[in-house]
Amino acid sequence: MHTEATPTHCPYCALQCGMGLATGPGGGVEVVERPGFPVNRGALCGKGRTAPAVLSSRVRLTGPLIRSHATGRLEPATWEEAIGRVAEGLARTRGDHGADACGVFGGGGLTNEKAYALGKFARVALGTSQIDYNGRFCMSSAAAAGQRAFGLDRGLPFPLEDIPRTGCLILVGSNLAETMPPALRYLTELRANGGKLIVVDPRRTRTAEQADLHLAPRPGTDLALALGLLHLVVAEGRTDEAFIEERTSGWQQARAAAMAHWPEYVERISGVPVPGLRDAAAMFCDADAGMVLTARGPEQQSKGTDTVGAWINLCLATGNAGRPLAGYGCLTGQGNGQGGREHGQKADQLPGYRKLTDPAARAHVARVWGVDPDSLPGPGRSAYELLDALGGDIKALLLMGSNPVVSAPRAAHVEERLRSLDLLAVADVVLSETAQLADVVLPVTQWAEETGTVTNLEGRVLLRRRAVSAPDGVRSDLDVLHGLAALLGHEKGFPTDPEEVFEELRRASAGGVADYSGISYARLKEGDGEGVFWPCPEARSESDDGHPGTPRLFLDRFATEDGRARFVPVTHRAAAEEPDMEYPVLLTTGRVLAQYQSGAQTRRVDELNSAAPGPFVEMHPRLAARLEVGDGEPVTVVSRRGRAVAPARITRAIRSDTVFMPFHWPGEGRANSLTNPALDPVSRMPEFKVCAVRLERA
């Protein structure tokens, strides 16, 4: 018999699927279905089902490690020694070089409480502006475009349950079947209800196989494609003039920019035939309601913000925004990618999604923190720029829940920068490739061993509950920050109890764009723990029953000052690096079903490793024939930044001018050794999704 299951959520992607954890007959932790949770209704992918494997002491860290000055190796240490070494190093760096010589790098998997505490630690205990997180590599372009158009960024402005009821969905750059398998049912239900599905992807993925129409553009040309569709909508008189007049601004400029992208021009740029463009425009406009969802494909580009903006313009021009069953949304990637950027670990933001440059925002948060607003540093560097500065302006780094040695663009260079630091301290669950470079490794609790909140891709705030005890040598990230802050002279202000941290987060977020002040642990435990959608302000009086939360945004007005959505004029421009004689092929990167992000955890699960044991280079048969390489034979992929070697996987499911590599592995198959750190000028997103390479027989 199982013990009674503790309701919790999967530690991986932003669906945050509901699950239960119970102790099985053999004493091990087992996953139990939780069919009442609305997002996944009990369904789980292989990663979620096998998540307890990472709780095993066989694969995870169970005690602190310090690099020995004598041997150069990481060796076991006490917590007092480890925390003392980190605090001493940070204090010395700050004293010798100033506060901004200390950097902090967070992760999109940290709970809201940990992300909040990390941002506060950086700005109050260290006084540094140099903090950002790996979520910058996730959906920062969509966030920037959403803020620009709507005045607010929330992954989905509607719950997932609305998707099957829309008339037409355009899914851009997402392989949902492999990255979020339990969500595939929403697409299946959409088509069963008579809705149409259009998938935009250079590969014919398992998701594209589900589509009524698959458009396969050349990587880096999604912007031209969106503009071409808007051109057709205008030319064919399919715009919603009443909606444009009543609820938007800036249409004339955006319209003029789009009209420069006639269909034949877009075909030359993107490789998508004009009939396909016309079919897509007609399918979208013929529907009673339409949605556009983007993911990393269009976003991880040096023009990602404008690309997302072009898809938003298409929604606005057709009246598919601010009304039921219609709108633009982004499929957030990381488990707490949404909440992780709302509460202060992003370089330019304070809790509640407040801007660090706003005097009123600074004053509000400073009051909650009990500090002078003038003592708060200004915005710092974005993620890649911070990593690139390591060993130069930044001498010491505290890193929590990220593995940039595998996940960052131009990864070999980032590894070199990490090695050049005077002090690298890493708090993680496992000895990741980045932790292996550290001077101090701090073993921390993980999802099932701690209580805390996360915010899924819908903006649904959820409570993960502690189900099992951590090994004796492991502490929570909140304990780590409390201990460091105390040694740096801040005995108070960094509690270790997650509910106490959340209560402070509520006050800090009150009145902000992402207002959590009406959400409490008690409320999140109610019913089946379905969560509460932000914004959710606090009750105004004792007689007030409280705000219900906001599942659907923008139905009455947009979050801009005048309540109108803003068209932003955008035009196509080339990728930062186009193919040439020396590097004639395009590389794009992504994920596979059995692995997650840098693979630091999933590569330690035997079942997942058996399903996806290593990297590969996906290529079209024509390209393989030109190289004289057979399926499974090793191929060297070379870019201006590095090289990677992996076996060829030959398929007609990819364009003949493009190769694809998954990015989950270190070593000679490390895809991010090749990728381009060229940054979007607004979001500072690196251009992971397109760079020029050449191929050689290994």
Protein described:
- The protein has 698 residues and is an alpha/beta fold.
- Helix content is 30%, strand content 18%.
- It has 23 helices and 30 strands.
- α3 packs parallel to α19, α4 (136-150) packs across α13 and α15 (359-369) packs antiparallel against α20.
Give a short overview.
The protein has 698 residues and is an alpha/beta fold. It has 23 helices and 30 strands.
Biggest sheet strand line-up: 5-4-18-17-16-6-7
What is the oligomeric state here? Answer: single chain
Number of strands: 30
Sheet of most strands: 7 strands, mixed
Explain the layout of strands and helices:
Blueprint: E1 6-9, E2 18-23, E3 29-32, H1 46-49, E4 65-67, E5 74-76, H2 79-97, E6 102-106, H3 112-126, E7 131-133, H4 136-150, E8 168-172, H5 176-179, H6 184-192, E9 196-200, E10 213-215, H7 222-235, H8 241-247, E11 248-249, H9 251-258, H10 263-270, H11 274-286, E12 290-294, H12 296-299, H13 304-317, E13 327-330, H14 337-342, E14 349-350, E15 354-355, H15 359-369, H16 383-388, E16 396-400, H17 404-407, H18 411-419, E17 423-428, E18 440-443, E19 452-455, E20 460-464, H19 477-487, H20 498-509, H21 521-524, E21 532-533, E22 565-566, E23 585-590, H22 606-611, E24 617-619, H23 621-627, E25 634-638, E26 643-650, E27 658-662, E28 676-679, E29 686-687, E30 691-697
Parallel strand pairs: 6-7, 6-16, 8-9, 8-12, 9-10, 11-22, 12-13, 16-17, 17-18, 23-27, 24-26
Antiparallel strand pairs: 1-2, 2-3, 4-5, 4-18, 14-15, 19-20, 20-21, 23-30, 25-26, 25-30, 28-29
Helix pairs in contact: 2-19, 3-19, 3-20, 4-13, 7-10, 7-11, 7-13, 15-20
